[in-house]
Write a structure and sequence with these properties.
The complex is a heterodimer.
Chain A: H1 5-14, E1 22-25, H2 28-38, E2 42-46, E3 59-62, H3 65-75, E4 79-80, E5 83-84, E6 88-91, E7 96-107, E8 112-118, H4 125-131, E9 136-141, H5 149-159, H6 166-178, E10 181-192, E11 197-199, E12 202-206, H7 215-218, H8 228-235, E13 239-242, E14 247-251, H9 254-266, E15 273-276, H10 283-294, E16 301-308, H11 313-326, E17 333-339, H12 342-352, E18 357-360, H13 363-376
Parallel strand pairs in A: 14-16, 16-17, 17-18
Antiparallel strand pairs in A: 1-6, 2-3, 2-6, 4-5, 7-8, 7-10, 8-9, 10-11, 10-12, 13-15
Chain B: E1 10-14, H1 19-30, E2 34-39, E3 47-49, E4 54-58, H2 61-68, E5 72-75, H3 79-91, E6 96-99, H4 106-118, E7 122-124, E8 130-133, E9 137-140, E10 150-157, H5 160-169, E11 175-180, H6 191-200, E12 206-212, H7 217-228, E13 233-238, H8 249-256, H9 262-271, E14 275-277, H10 280-291
Helix pairs in contact in B: 3-4, 5-10, 6-7, 7-9
Classes of the chains: A alpha+beta, B alpha/beta.
EC number (chain A): 6.2.1.5
GO molecular function, one term (chain A): succinate-CoA ligase (GDP-forming) activity
Keywords (chain A): ATP-binding, Ligase, Magnesium, Metal-binding, Nucleotide-binding, Tricarboxylic acid cycle
C-alpha cells in the first residue's frame, strides 16, 4: 500500500527524521486557518498517490493565508494523473542550499534491499539516473546487517553526500524495517541554509502482508478519496481493481484473471475490472463480486472464468446459481468452467437455464462471446 | 528424471495437522508422494492415519529429519510463523523447502532466503503452489488429478492457476516437472534456476516459461536463455492490460530501467528466440507443434 505524503511524513518524524512544519486539510477554509498557524507563507501540496505532482500543478506557493485559501480552492477536486485531489498539505517553505536523493528499495532480483542515493536530488532525478548513471550510487544492504553507522557513512560517501546525512540514512533504514516498508524514498532531502538536514518530500510503500504485526495501519479508516466501487469491494474483502472497459471479469487466481483481461482485450473489447475470487468458491463471494461488478454502469457483459484446480467447478456453479437468487442479473453472463469437476459444474448451470447465462467450453471462445455481447449491447 | 523432486524424495510437512496441511497431505499421498513425517511442536508423538499410511508427527524438523531421512519439506504454517519454519528446516539440513504459505511479509522473506542460501538449502516460494513431477512425487498443492501424466515438458511459472491451465491443456503430452515459483516480490527459486535445471535434465525436451507483470525476472530469464539454454523454450506472459497499480515510482524505475510491463517481457523473450503465445491455449499449441 502506497502512503500519502503526509502519512510518510509522520513516519519520518516518528523515527527522528526532521521534516518541515505542516498541516493536512480538506477544505479551503481550513487551509486559511492552517496557513495562519504556520506563519502565513506556505507551500500548498496536493495529496495524491502519484509522482510528478510538481510538474502537474499540484504544488504551489502561497504568499499569505488568503492566497493559501484561494490556492487550496483551485487544487482541491482537480485531477492529477487520474487521481482526484481530496486533501492538501500546507507546509512551511524552507530555504535550502542543496537537494539530495535517498531511497531504500527492494531489489527483487537479488532478494534484498538496495540503498540508492545521489547528490543531485530534486524533480529530475529520473533523468539524472538515465543520462548519468554514475551520479547515482546503488549500494546493496545485507539483510542480517542492515544500515549501521559505518554502512550509512559508506552510502553517503559513495553518493557524494555530506557526512551529516549519514545519521538520517540510519533513521530511514529504521523506518523501512520497523514499519515493514517496501520502499522509503526521500526526494528531495535538503540541507537548509542554516545547516539542518530535512526531508522535504517522501514516499513510503508499506507491505500489506505485514498488517498482522502493524496495528497502526489496520486501525486506519478506508481511504475516503478512493474509487467508490473499489471501496465497496474492499469492504467486502474482494480483490478488485476498477478499469475503464465494458466487460466485467471474475476469475480464480491472479495470473489467470490477468490472462483473462488480456484475452478479452485481444477480442476487441476492454475489461471493466480485475476481480480474483481466489481459491474460494462460496456463494457469498460470488454474489458480492457480481453485485460490485453489476453496480458499474459501464459493464455490458460479465465473463466468469474459472479453472478448477483445488477449487471444484461444481461448487463454483452452485455458488453462481445461488448468487443469481440475490443478485438481479440484467446483463449477460458468460461462464467458462474447466478442470476439477467441470462436467458437473456445467450440468448445474444447464439445469438452472437462466436466460442471461451463457456457457462456453474454452477460455478463448468465452472471451470472444463476452466481448461480442458487450460490444453489441 | 525430473528436477528437484523425484520418487526418491522423502517429504515432511510442517503444519500437517492444520486444516490445509491435512487436506493437501492427503492429496500428496494420493499422488504418490513419499510423506514420511509431519511437524507440530504441540503434537509431537502423535501419528495421523491417512488412507494407506500412518504419518508420525515430530516436535521439530531436526527430530523428524533424524528419524526419517526426510530431504524435502512443505510448509503450510501461517504467515507470522513461516519465516521461523524455513529457518528451522535450513538448520536441520533439509535440502528443499517448499513454502506454500500466502501473505508472508517481504522483510521476512528477505531474511529467510538469505539464511537458507547461506546453508545450502533451496527454497521454493513463498506463496507458490509447489512442484510436481508427475508419476513420481508432488510437493505442494498442484492438483495431480488434472495433470498426472509424465512426459517431456518442463514448466516454470509465477502463477498457480496458469500452471494448472497449461498442464491441463498439455495433459496428453505430459511433464517432467512443473514448478510454481510464486508471484511474490522475493522468491527463493527463480525462472533462471529452473531453466538451468531443465537444461541439465535429459528427459526434458522443451521448457514452458510463464511470467506476469512486475519486476524484471522474465527479462533476466530471457538473457539467460540467450546465453545458456539450448532446449526450445515457449513463453507466456500475463498482464498486458493490467492496471499499472502498485508502481514503485522513481526508485522502481531507477532500479530496473523498465517498468516491468508485459510488453517489455515479451520483447525480451522473443529477442532471445522464445516463441511467446498470446493466450494460454495458443501457448499450448506452440508447445505441441515444437514437440512434433
Amino acid at each position: 500500500m502506497d502512503l500519502y505524503e503526509h502519512e510518510a511524513r509522520e513516519l519520518f518524524a516518528r523515527h527522528g527524521v526532521s521534516v518541515p512544519d505542516a498541516e493536512v486539510v480538506d477544505t479551503p477554509h481550513e487551509a486559511r486557518r492552517a496557513a495562519e498557524r504556520l506563519g502565513g507563507r506556505v507551500v500548498v501540496k496536493a495529496q495524491v498517490k502519484t509522482g510528478g505532482r510538481g510538474k502537474a500543478g499540484g504544488v504551489k506557493l502561497a504568499a499569505d493565508p488568503a492566497a493559501a485559501e484561494l490556492t487550496a480552492r483551485q487544487v482541491l477536486g482537480t485531477d492529477i494523473k487520474g487521481h482526484t485531489v481530496g486533501r492538501v498539505m500546507l507546509a512551511q517553505p524552507v530555504d535550502f542550499e542543496a537537494e539530495f536523493y535517498v531511497s531504500y528499495v527492494l531489489d527483487r532480483g537479488a532478494g534484498r534491499f538496495l540503498a540508492i542515493a545521489s547528490a543531485e536530488g530534486g524533480m529530475d532525478i529520473e533523468e539524472v539516473a538515465a543520462s548519468r548513471p554514475d551520479a547515482v550510487a546503488r549500494i546493496p544492504v545485507e539483510p542480517d546487517e542492515g544500515v549501521t553507522a559505518s554502512k550509512a557513512a559508506g552510502i553517503a560517501a559513495a553518493a557524494g553526500l555530506p557526512p551529516e546525512v549519514a545519521p538520517v540514512l540510519e533513521r530511514l533504514w529504521q523506518v523501512l524495517v520497523r514499519e515493514d516498508a517496501l520502499l522509503v524514498e526521500v526526494n528531495p532531502l535538503v540541507r537548509t541554509t542554516d545547516g539542518r538536514i530535512l526531508a522535504l518530500d517522501g514516499k513510503v510503500t508499506v507491505d500489506d502482508n505485514a498488517r498482522f504485526r502493524q496495528g497502526r495501519w489496520s486501525a486506519q479508516a478506508p481511504d475516503p478519496h478512493g474509487d467508490p466501487l473499489e471501496a465497496a469491494a474492499t469492504a467486502k474483502g474482494l480483490n478488485y481493481v476498477k478499469l475503464d472497459g465494458e466487460v466485467g471479469i471474475i476469475g480464480n487466481g491472479a495470473g489467470l484473471v490477468m490472462s483473462t483481461l488480456d484475452v478479452v482485450a485481444g477480442c476487441g473489447a476492454r475489461p471493466a475490472n480485475f476481480l480474483d475470487i481466489g481459491g474460494g468458491a462460496s456463494a457469498e463471494v460470488m454474489a458480492d463480486g457480481l453485485s460490485v461488478i453489476l453496480s458499474d454502469p459501464a459493464v455490458k457483459s460479465v465473463f466468469v472464468n474459472v479453472f478448477g484446480g483445488i477449487t471444484a467447478c461444481d461448487a463454483v456453479a452452485d455458488s453462481i446459481v445461488r448468487a443469481l437468487e440475490s443478485v438481479h442479473l440484467t446483463r449477460p453472463l458468460v461462464v467458462r468452467l474447466d478442470g476439477n469437476a467441470a462436467a458437473r459444474g456445467r450440468a448445474i448451470l444447464d439445469d438452472r437455464a437462466h436466460p442471461l447465462v451463457h456457457q462456453a467450453t474454452t477460455m478463448d471462445s468465452a472471451a470472444r462471446r463476452a466481448a461480442q455481447l458487450a460490444v453489441s449491447a | 528424471m525430473a528436477i528437484y523432486l523425484t520418487k526418491r524424495s522423502k517429504v515432511l510437512v510442517q503444519g500437517m495437522t492444520g486444516a490445509e496441511g491435512m487436506k493437501h497431505t492427503r492429496r500428496m499421498l494420493a499422488a504418490g508422494t513419499d510423506i514420511v513425517a509431519g511437524v507440530n511442536p504441540r503434537k509431537a508423538g502423535l501419528a495421523v492415519d491417512f488412507e494407506d499410511r500412518t504419518v508420525p508427527v515430530f516436535g521439530t524438523v531436526a527430530e523428524a529429519a533424524a528419524a526419517t531421512a526426510a530431504d524435502v519439506t512443505v510448509v503450510f504454517v501461517p504467515p507470522p510463523f513461516a519465516g521461523a519454519a524455513v529457518v528451522e528446516a535450513a538448520d536441520a539440513g533439509i535440502g528443499l523447502v517448499v513454502v506454500i504459505t500466502e501473505g508472508v511479509p517481504v522483510h521476512d522473506a528477505v531474511a529467510f532466503h538469505a539464511y537458507a542460501k547461506a546453508r545450502g538449502t533451496r527454497v521454493i516460494g513463498p506463496n507458490c503452489p509447489g512442484l510436481i513431477s508427475p508419476g513420481q512425487s508432488n510437493a505442494g498443492i498442484i492438483p495431480a488429478d488434472i495433470a498426472a501424466k509424465p512426459g517431456r515438458i518442463g514448466l516454470v511459472s509465477k502463477s498457480g492457476t496458469l500452471t494448472y491451465q497449461l498442464m491441463y491443456e498439455l495433459r496428453d503430452a505430459g511433464f517432467t516437472t512443473a514448478v510454481g515459483i510464486g508471484g511474490d516480490p522475493v522468491i527463493g527459486t527463480t525462472h533462471i534456476d529452473c531453466l538451468a535445471a531443465f537444461e541439465n535434465d535429459p528427459d526434458t525436451e522443451l521448457v514452458i516459461l510463464i511470467g506476469e507483470i512486475g519486476g524484471d525476472a522474465e527479462e533476466r530469464a530471457a538473457a539467460y536463455i540467450a546465453d545458456r539454454v539450448t532446449k526450445p523454450v515457449i513463453g507466456y506472459i500475463a498482464g498486458f492490460t493490467a492496471p499499472e497499480g502498485r508502481t514503485m515510482g522513481h526508485a522502481g524505475a531507477i532500479v530496473s530501467g523498465t517498468s516491468g510491463t508485459a510488453e517489455a517481457k515479451r520483447h525480451a523473450l522473443e529477442a532471445a528466440g522464445v516463441r511467446v503465445g498470446s493466450t494460454p491455449s495458443e501457448t499450448a499449441l506452440l508447445a505441441l507443434a515444437q514437440l512434433g
